[in-house]
Amino acid sequence: MTFNAIGYFIYLPITGFITIVVGKSFHENGIYYIKSIVPEKKIATSLNNLLLIGYYLVNIGYAFISIIKWEHISNLHQLIEEISLRTAYIILLLTLMHYLNIASIALWSYYKNKHQININ
To answer: pLDDT of 46-97, one tens digit each?
Structure first.
């Protein structure tokens, strides 16, 4: 078995674990943030579910693209380095996606509230 194959068998479970655990956490706790901005329960729940699906799709896609980009690994040092680097990249991607989603929802809420017409 080559070092690349060993790397794939190590990297994919790590990435899968991180993706699932973080995704569940975002989904369970993010609904409170979304409900504070979107008062309609059905819309808030639907938005939260769509964010989770998008999150999973982006992470699965990134994991497979990341594997395609691996160069030939010839020793244990390179294997550890490659797994660490690819895992760090996916964690940074998750962080960036999380803050972009929060900012997008906050901006949407601000815009919605600023342009809301009161008929009183």
So the answer is: 989 998 998 899 888 988 898 888 889 999 999 999 999 999 998 998 888 8
What are residue 7's phi and psi, to 5 degrees? Answer: -60, -40
- b/e map 12-27, b = 16+ CB within 10 Å: eeebeebbeebbeebb
Structure tokens at 5: 């194959």
Helix or strand run (H / E) with residue 67? helix 41-68
Give the Cβ contact number of residue 60 at 10 Å. 13
Burial of 71 (0-12, 13-18, 19+ CB in 10 A): exposed
| Closest residue by Cα to residue 30 from 101, 95, 90, 94 | 101
Give the per-residue pLDDT at 75. Answer: 93
For residue 105, the tally of other CB atoms under 10 A from its CB is 18
